[in-house]
Amino acid sequence: MSLLDRIPHWRLVKMATVLTALSPLVGAASPESNAAARDAAGPLAQQGAILYAVKCASCHGTRLEGGQHAPPLTGAAFRESWNQKTARNFYSRVLSTMPVNDPGSLAPEEVLRITLFCLATNGMKFNDEPANVAALNKLKLQWDK
Q1: What's the rounded Cα separation, in Å, for the pair 119 and 136?
Q2: How far is residue 141's CA from residue 112's CA, in Å, rounded to a whole number?
Q3: What is the pLDDT of residues 91-119, one digit of tens each?
Q4: Which among 49, 76, 113, 135 is least buried, having the fewest CB atoms inside 10 angstroms?
Q5: H helices within 9-144, ranges in order?
Q6: Does the pTM exceed 0.90?
Q7: Which CATH number applies to 3-138?
Q8: Domain ranges in the chain?
Q9: Considering only CA atoms, which of 26, 29, 110, 43 is closest in space to residue 74?
Q10: CB–CB of 55/100 below 8 Å?
Q11: Is residue 33's pLDDT more than 50?
Q12: 3-class DSSP state for residue 117?
């Protein structure tokens, strides 16, 4: 049973409504992340956008811009911090430390989707979208400077 199969229909509708309202904002995450890059993201990253809006945006901002106590998840500082590391490094950080008020409470499937969404928003291109956590070990984070 997939993660989405376990979410009640009414909650999916509510999340879709929130995502629809936030989509113009999430789309403006950075000059480098454009609609074409997001559209090229696979279904897991698109599901991650919904999860991000519900579980992360209140601290990290609707545009991944960061907040008073949360770092940005987009932009030059983010890319510099994670450049040359693996996607698994980022995934592991999110899995073990988020949300700040209940670290480690996100399901691994949720974190995978949120990770792919954040990376896609930052312009990462996937030849094939990683379908599982193990595949993140092979995905090196690289951005042009």
Answers
A1: 11
A2: 15
A3: 999 999 999 999 999 999 999 999 999 99
A4: 76
A5: 9-26, 35-40, 43-55, 57-60, 76-82, 87-97, 108-121
A6: no
A7: 1.10.760.10
A8: 3-138
A9: 29
A10: no
A11: no
A12: helix
